[in-house]
Queue: 3 jobs
Job 1
Amino acid sequence: MEMLLIKLEKNIESPLYEQIYDQIRRDITNGKLPIGMKLPSKRKLGEFLAVSQTTIELAYAQLIAEGFISSQPRKGFYVQAIEELSYVQPVVPIEKTFNKMKEDIAFDFSPGKIDTGSFPFDQWRKYAKDVIDESSQHLLLLGHPHGDYELRQEIARYLYHSRGVDCTPEQIIVGSGTEQLMPLLIRILGTEATYAIEDPGYPLTHHVFYHNNREAIPISVDDEGMDVRALQRSGATIAYVTPSHQFPTGTVLSAARRIALLNWASSKDEHFIIEDDYDSEFRYSGRPIPSLQGMDKSGNVIYLSTFSKSLMPSLRIAYMVLPPVLLDRYEKAFIHYAATVPRLDQHILSRFMADGHFSRHLNRMRKTYKRKLQVLSEALLAYAPSVSFSGDEAGMHIILKVHTQTTEAALEETARRAGIRVYSVNEYRSTAVTGEPSFLIGFGGLSIKEIKTAVEKLMAAWQIKKV
């Protein structure tokens, strides 16, 4: 029996039981939950999703009524064959609810947003004009399935100088986002692989494991990063980590844990580490944190990163660096695949990097985000000791802890009613925990003026006063 990873949106009108019902129904219809699979008990699923058993019971009852699952006394709940089911009217979409919410939000502390106003449009436009020309007719044809060599060469050069990643262009696979590369990586790691994921951690990647029918075991994160001893006890063969700036806590994997993790990976042939270096460019104090890949001597680290934070999310260019043993598997498994990133975009980016504009852009953005972080920190310090924050040495978000008896959900709803969106840390956990409310506060997409105003309005909504 596998646990079901279901994302619940607690700030929309659709009831929780309806969201659970809809996601299970969709997964059965799409074949992601195989016929005969035993579903978790109402108690276990309720504990896993941090909802009541009554909520699970309502969802299961609806699925039973429509014939998607069956209940066997003293045995449990099982998926039924959908080819035997009659047509079921789809659930009414709730897009209008989301649109209404967006209209009501004045300040969004999203950790995924960037400073779009600082994008180097003039330079990018120049390279786009140069590339989109009749002399580049060859770029209209399919290129190398791993991505064009020119871009992979620039990525390899950049990684070596900025992150200490030791690789050749041939080891780099370019793809249209992490969510496109991860399923390919999962396939070459084999069906026997068991994944250890950080808890709390990045939900999109966790869903990729789930939707590819791979077991994912949550491993707790403390102030030194992933608990490697718990990893060793888990029986996992693959560890997915964000060591340079753990998402969402902002923790840096300690030196001792790095060595322990690398030793764990080298202890067996099929042990690998997936190092997601999603925002390592933005570190504001001390020396850059070296990559695990650069420390690896056994070929057990898969390095993964993207240009979403450093340039723009819509560019949809990510890449992974495969160790030689996995590169050989990849080439054999995907020999007929074509690159998923348009060649014109690849060459615009490669020329942008080759002429030094990418490095200069990163230097400017470090200063911009560091200034925003300073403004955010100063604004929040005025409300200490009622609030405190951590994870402010790198990245584009911090963790805000509110010292109150009010629940996390209540504070999140209060903020939303005031036109401010904050993100509960519990949303990124496999199992919700009790304790003082904690929130991700992203500052990348807000101006300095907006940051000051948003903090003041948020504290006022929470009835927290300055000292």
Job 2
Amino acid sequence: MQSEIAVKLSENVPRYTSYPTAPHFHSGVDAAIYRGWLEALESGDEISLYLHIPYCDKLCWFCACHTKQTHQYEPVAAYLRSLNAEIVTIAGLVSGKAHVRAIHFGGGSPTMLRPDDMVALGAALRDSFDLLPDATVSIEIGTNDMDKARLDALAQIGVTRASLGVQDFDPQVQKAINREQSFLQTKAVVDGVRSRGVESVNVDLLYGLPNQTRETICSTVAQALTLEPDRMALFGYAHVPWFKKHQTMIDEAWLPSPTERFAQSQLAARAIVAKGYEAIGLDHFAKPDDALAIAARAGVLHRNFQGYTEDRCPTLIGLGPSSIGRFRQGYVQNMASTAGYGRMVADGGLAAVRGVALSDDDRVRGWIIERLMCDFAFSAVDLVERFGKAGEKLLHRSRSIALHDPARALEFDGDSFVVRAESRPFVRTIAAKFDTYFKGGTARHSVAV
């Protein structure tokens, strides 16, 4: 039955970490509008910060992040000077009003920073912004970067959650994606961050990788589970060589078929759940006492550019090149070029070059898509109560989708629209039915599963 649904619903669709999605951002939202959105923050607002470190010392061929390889540290040091300039400018616009609830360091490889630079960056954030006493600090760790000094630096800047990219432990798969990382290396880092007080550890795995099989991914999952991470993410490899040229290093003949990808994802998910983890949304898992699982059970799970999150802040400020911010008014994205970004933030400037201001229709559709991605359902009553006439319009659209969908993936029970259990792996395809930009867009996307 699921294989039949896979044929009907598996197509190339967005990942829906925002709505509208990034390909529909435009230059009409610029630095001047961004400055206005920052100045419009109200006293007592809680915000989150995302800091992008766009460098790696080795480029993984599967990666679709905005990053570049460097064997010299000077470009990184120069970039940090620009990042600090942006921090000063942003803080000057929001200090005295907004309080920071969460900080996330992403990349690239944030742990490529030298320990003293890591500590200095953490100090700059605490000196510039008003951090809440219980603010969370999370970081994406490049396992091969880590040593005792960097582990100590993470402790010094107050990291509360560490995320490690594993992908697959099989040597043949690792060679095909240019990322060699042993289980023992990974375990040493997990033990290292935990011994320094990090409260939560996340492990990222991928299915659909070159040379990957059901056996290799099951073996990887089994090894990862022995680390007893608090959270696990199971992403499908997004093969987008038209977007990331280094992915052409991966021979497409090495990639598993759609049917094999689906089988890998289901086997891995079942193995994780069998160990007591709760399935969170499309591709995350968490221990029952983890904040992510608690948020999911309470119906307050959210989704942003870092994936599923319990972070409820309506404002996310992106710092660094290509970073995306989210505001009540809309989305804004910084200049992607590191050099261009540096020029724009010099002398108190802002680096925003594109984005989108939300219409009433965008807000309704975005809410529906987020609830589908997070809860696999949304309430008809909530829809109308939250959005009034705009909600009533989308209620009729929702009923039409449920009634005329030949796969019957979305059902209406009289109170709520619910994604059938067997259709949940394809929820991105269902969400796309509410995306008014999707059919008319020219952007290319990765497969749904």
Job 3
Amino acid sequence: MNASVVGSGYVGTTLSACLADMGHEVTAIDIDEETVERLNGGEARIHEPGLGPLLSAYAGGRLQATTEHAAAAETDVTFLAVGTPSNPDGSIDASILLAAAEDIGRAIADKDGYHLVVVKSTVMPDVIDEEVIPQIEAASEKTDGEEIGVAVNPEFQREGSAVRDFMEPDKIVLGTDGDERALDILAELYQPLVSDWEVPVVETGRREAAMIKYANNAFLAAKISLINDLGNVCKLFDVDAYEVADAIGLDDRIGEQFLRSGVGWGGSCFPKDTAALVAGARAAGYEPLMIEAAVELNDRQPERLLELLDGHVDVEGKRIAVLGLAFKPGTDDIRGTRARPVIEGLLARDADVVAYDPLAAETMAEEFPKIEYAESAAEALEDVHGAAVVTDWPEFADLDAAFDAMANPVVIDGRRIVERRRGIVYEGLTW
């Protein structure tokens, strides 16, 4: 098929590259000229395992990038994969999505035949019907369900494994409100994935598809917060929370994933999506207590880590290492990272902070330019009076010799990546 993708961030770039790998002709549309130039040169502006080789293989061939929205008219289907950032109250700012919808509406105004617009961006259900569709209809002077179709196809890609998550999905959700032409196009588009992996395909309404994305992330966020809460209780009774988690994970009603207690969740999706659900529910007159509790507990975990450190070291004027700055291993993304409140808490305590991350140091330096950034984890640990492990990069599991270089070998591990051993004072956040 011939597809166009508006937006070349994490979701859009991965979507474009994977569609090309599936055999489709793809036009990536972005307003940023540098992004377009780099895509056409086979480069991404983001770090994502497996993405670079795909771009190198298809850029200039099945994958072309442009700043011209008019190119969408030459395709069969257009995906809107632009950002939907949070407003100060947690609600979603849909202005970028609405601008993209208007641009695509104008682009297909003179097109003969049916054109499908698919919303990949994450927005609350009412935004689709009340804002996005009217915007496309007004700009194109076409009617949804007649000359054009609008579908919702949420993404479930994790940073650090986005390519694999797209190519080997747990499910594909197609929200079309029963538009058979839209379903036929999306079925043909995704046919290679469905046939290769026997993927469950959920055919549902547009509003339901939009809510599935939020519900998915809220459930996972709540699951992490619950295991963190249980982990905090386990620590009070000197119980190994990970042994408890291993056992309850065997119950198929619970499952073993997302049961690693620690310093909490971050990233671009969980914080934004839980905030949007809370804001949307409150606007409708309902207090979503479980979701609010999951967020509140997550916000407390970094301070608990710092309190454990306080129990061993008076950090004022002391050199303290922070290991891990990205919100998870395998990415350079610092959105929602638990390292931010940890660093802020250390600076508020007048500590001298030295930080290390294999990918995210440069990005974090823009936000905290006055702290020191080491070239390696071993360098970060030299002569420090304490270390806080915030991201579970695999290399942090092999730092035995480096701990010997600490002035005061106190390690507070927020991810259970460091092995307990003689010679260091070790505490886990919830074990």
